[in-house]
Amino acid sequence: MSQTTTIQAAEAPRTVTLMNGSTYSFNSNISTTLEKIPVIDAARIWSESLEDRKAVAEEVRDASRNIGFFYLVNHGVDESYAEGTFEQAKRFFALPEEKKMEVFTGLVPNEYVGFHPMECYNRNGWKHQDLSEAFNWSYDPREDPEAEEGIEPTVSLWPSDLPGFREGLYAYHGQLLRLARRLTRIYALALHLPEDAFDQYIKRPEAGMRILHYPEQKHSVDDQNGIGAHTDVECFTIVTQDLSGGLEVLGKNGNWIKAEPIPGSFVVNIADCFMRQTNDFFVSTVHRVINKSGKERYSAPFFFGFDRTKLLEPIPTCVSEENPMKYPIMTGGEYYAWRTNRQKKTNVYNSKTAQ
Fold this sequence. Notes:
By secondary structure, this protein is α+β, with helices and mostly antiparallel strands. About 25% of the residues lie in helices and about 20% in strands. The protein has helices at about 50-65, 80-95, 95-100, 165-190, 270-275, 330-345, 350-355; strands spanning about 5, 15-20, 25, 30, 40, 70-75, 115, 135, 205-215, 225-230, 235-240, 245-250, 255-260, 265-270, 285-290, 295-305. Strands 5-6-14-11-16-9-8-7 form an eight-stranded mixed β-sheet. The chain has a five-stranded mixed β-sheet with strand order 4-13-12-15-10, with no helix packed on it. Strand 2 and strand 3 (about 25) form a beta hairpin. Helix 1 (about 50-65) packs across helix 4 and helix 2 (about 80-95) packs across helix 4.
């Protein structure tokens, strides 16, 4: 999930101030393939050997600290689930606008679930609204074989008369939930903690997902994005993208790096809650989407975080007397609600539905 940003009128470098208060600069809107995002072989995360798991954890540690993004290959999730999810996305986004608006996100306060219409946000203050539409759904314990008893189902909105839609999306969601739980253990090792250090936080995880549709952009990249520059909210995101390209990552040197599609891979990135807990050891990196592929683009990010009721306390290996905690401690739910409501208030459809 993303947040509104403001681009200040200036010559290069341009300055981006995000809603979480961070400010970044980038050199121009021209992106490059000269810099590369690390590729990590995920087969070892399933190994019975602790040494194998520690070895891949060190690669994850380096990527999460230096750029905050990496590709994950050989992850064990069958590609048919992604293909099925993209088919469901095409079904939903082909519906008439009035049908999609029956599940408009503005109907649910404090949550990001539901339909986010085309051109409803403008994260960077460009001349034209962001050219994308999305549908979000959340974790539901009824769809989680590892769910504990007594967990209330979370609120999601589902369109009527679209048989198989909910079931198809949760089929993929379940596969990514299993992967995310295993990755959480790898992240614990990456932070030089016991492998089970975060197990208590993911019994009832924050595990939302969305499907997105990006028409081809006709306007200049200086005037419009598919999704403007932003960071994600939770701990980490697992992105499934089609082969159209368009995802771009802001490198530390201020250049936009193209995250070119690798068939069968995921793109994984650190999000703000993990950056806060690791006291900026892991970096939540700014990214955006520019669809100049000549065709429609679809993607499906899975946003994984810790139990909303748990405090986002500092990771012991990331703080010291010389490096005290930089952020106030709050629950994951408090941070999620703050960011969600700030974003949703900028949805230009709010005023239209209120008329």
